[in-house]
Design brief:
Layout lengths: L15 H17 L6 H6 L4 H4 L5 H12 L17 H62 L5
Length: 153
């Protein structure tokens, strides 16, 4: 029994293979240009991690996304209220509460930013160590193959 694809795209006069190839080329170009190195894209791609893991550039790309998203934004924000009735009163109440609690939230956020920064530095250090070890092992393999006369063909 042959399995049919889960999803089939097609219409008369549409070259689906060319369309998919054009989309992949556009995505590749945008990745090279840095268009997708955004934290929101990293969150959106979370579901594709299994598929991306096979890529050679996955770790570099993912670390760049983490680096961009590692720190919590602790700046003030505008408090808005969509409800018309009591809207200005609710905004005033929320603004007052925010001013009273800001000190505590800033402390928590700054501590979280410290932890996030340390974890990011540790991850980058581990990646650099792994890359250096792999490069050294690859160099050693080449040297051993040369010495034994079994160079790669």
């Amino acid at each position: 029994m042959s399995e049919s694809p889960i999803l089939s795209i097609g219409a008369p006069g549409i070259d689906v293979d060319r369309l998919v190839a054009d989309l992949q080329a556009t995505v590749d170009r945008k990745v090279r240009d840095g268009a997708y190195a955004d934290a929101r894209v990293a969150r959106a791609e979370k579901t594709n991690l299994v598929n991306l893991r096979g890529s050679d550039d996955f770790l570099t790309f993912y670390l760049a996304c983490l680096r961009d998203a590692v720190f919590v934004d602790i700046s003030d924000f505008e408090i808005r209220e969509r409800r018309r009735f009591f809207g200005p009163l609710l905004v005033a109440l929320k603004t007052t509460l925010w001013k009273l609690l800001k000190f505590y939230t800033y402390r928590l956020w700054s501590q979280q930013n410290q932890v996030n920064g340390l974890l990011m530095t540790a991850l980058e250090g581990m990646e650099e160590q792994s890359a250096a070890r792999i490069a050294a092992l690859e160099k050693r393999i080449v040297e051993l193959e040369k010495a034994s006369g079994h160079g790669r063909s």
